Amino acid sequence: MTDIKKSAPTGTFKSIMKSNTMVLVLLGVMILFEVLIQLTGHGSLFAPANITNIIRQNAYVVILATGMLCCILTGGNIDLSVGSVVALVGALAGVFVVNLGWPIWLAILACLIVGTMIGAFHGFFIAYVHIPPFITTLAGMLLWRGVATIVLNGIPIAPFTPEYKVLFESFLPLESDRFGEVFALGSYININTMIITMIITLICVLAFVITEIISRANKIKKNYTVTPVGFFIAKLVLLSLVIIGLGQFLARDRGIPVILILLAVIIAAYAYFTQNTVPGRYLYAIGGNEKAARLSGVNTNNVMFFAYTNMGFIAAIAALVTVARLDSAQPTAGVNYEMDAIASCFIGGASAYGGTGTVTGAVIGAIFMGVLNNGMSILGVDMNWQRAVKGIVLLLAVIFDVVSKKRKSSK
């Protein structure tokens, strides 16, 4: 089996820029939208309330992208059913919470179990019956959308209880803990919100810096090539400033969205799983060379089963978040969600052939999609043109991947 350890990028400026291409593109797009929005007098992309909206409206994309990446890593495979699974699990959440009045924790647990079982259903046929993932999940897309409509009888269920919505749609600090407003920077700012948000932000910066230093030390100990100290320090400073900047935007609005904390936990967990655990590295091994992985003792069937079972679990989490934001369970929920997740992974650097990609890249791709949607919406771009632009961006990302692969193979 090919070596599945991935050394750090070399310390040249060219390699560093190449490994952060998508981040630079994202920054460029954000600046472009800000200029266009300012010129047309539509407000600002960087308005605190708008930053909060980008996080809340695109949380489902980030969640789904982490699960979709695991599927793509196994050989460019995708799951077309996630939007329908979101609709079905959301419908069940509406029935359990609103219609039947179940305790919140029991309803959430039941929804997560159902989502995981749906993922296992797909995984069984893909891994052990060897039906192509595209066909299996296409069938699931039709099946679960139909079941969701049957469960809801074609009628949305709303509203959800405040106890449920507070788990996904509230802010820290809570409304009851806020006091004292001052007028600053063109808007009213709650003093308590500002203080608590910035304290949490600084704690996150400290945790980030410590984690990066420990990670670098471990790589050096294992004789991996690491970036020069100057570049490493510059990276820490720049990313710390980004985190502080995000924190002050949130502090000037309503504080830290609870959904952002959930996203941070999911991203950290899956980033660690894919990069630092043996089962996670198996995903890369199968995508790199499935036959070699199998001959080396990797149970490829079990790995494929896990990838799609996990996708069902992740889709269930996305469903719980979605119904809380919409405050209703709808038979049309989740339409094209799978496309947003797939596009996020490919735009974030995942290979169409599998074996390459990171959770961080998928998250950057999801943020890129969110900024694209939000910026075009503020500018009043027609929805049809928005779809066209997203399609072109996805195509360019895949073309870049294919061309890069051909250049490497020709060397």
CATH architecture of the largest domain: Orthogonal Bundle
Distance N terminus to C terminus?
Answer: 22 Å
Task: Name the helicity range.
Answer: over 70%
Quaternary state of this entry equals: single chain
CATH hierarchy, class of the largest domain:
Mainly Alpha
Q: How large is the share of residues in beta strands? A: under 5%
Encode the helix/strand succession as letters.
HHHHHHHHEEEHHEHHHHHHH
Strand order of the largest sheet: 1-4
Structural domain tally:
2
Number of strands: 4
Task: Give a written overview of the molecule.
The structure is a single chain. This protein has 2 domains: 13-173 and 255-402, ABC transporter involved in vitamin B12 uptake, BtuC, CATH 1.10.3470; 174-254, no CATH class. Helix content is 73%, strand content 3%. The two termini are 22 Å apart. Helix 3 crosses helix 10 (229-251) and helix 5 (82-99) packs across helix 14 (300-326). It has helices at 13-19, 21-40, 48-57, 59-73, 82-99, 104-127, 133-152, 162-169, 191-221, 229-251, 258-276, 278-288, 290-295, 300-326, 337-347, 359-378, 383-410; strands at residues 171-172, 181-184, 187-190, 256-257. It is built from 17 helices and 4 strands. It has a two-stranded antiparallel sheet. A two-stranded antiparallel sheet has the order 2-3. Strand 2 (181-184) and strand 3 (187-190) form a beta hairpin. The chain has 411 residues and is mostly helical.
